[in-house]
């Protein structure tokens, strides 16, 4: 049985008037620009973190990058070379995302890079979670799951997916997406 408190808490009230129009405009704005904003913010993030790796001691990830790249390349890339290659890859990804040029290539490189970025969670688990609790480095890597999810959204957009706002009440999507039904 539903109490009056539960019923009141679960009732949905559609906004009307100015609030509804503002929400509709906001929804259209998000649908139109959301993927591009995600692409640009990911690009800025990759460029900033990649650029730090060019300067020894500047990147908080240096202690993770070097051993991870050494393991993933079976010792072919070590020390400063591992950092420099990672810096170049991350900056390339950042520039392609920021500019939108060579975007599909940048996204393919990003897909490969994400394997390396997230691999410390497996390869260095004991170092990242001593005693079962995450270190600051573990948290640094763990937040990259959000970057991976954002990359999936951007990749979907690059492959043609679009966010589409819902049709206004009384209107159904037409050939152009939001035309009248009659």
UniProtKB/TrEMBL annotation:
Domain of life: Bacteria
InterPro entries the record matches: DoxX (IPR032808)
Pfam families referenced in this protein's UniProt entry, alphabetically: DoxX (PF07681)
Principal location: membrane
Membrane topology listed for this record: Multi-pass membrane protein
Name of this protein: Putative membrane protein YkgB
Segments crossing the lipid bilayer: 37-55, 75-98, 105-125, 145-164
Keywords from the named record: Membrane, Transmembrane, Transmembrane helix
Record flagged with keyword Repeat: no
Subcellular location(s) of the protein: Membrane
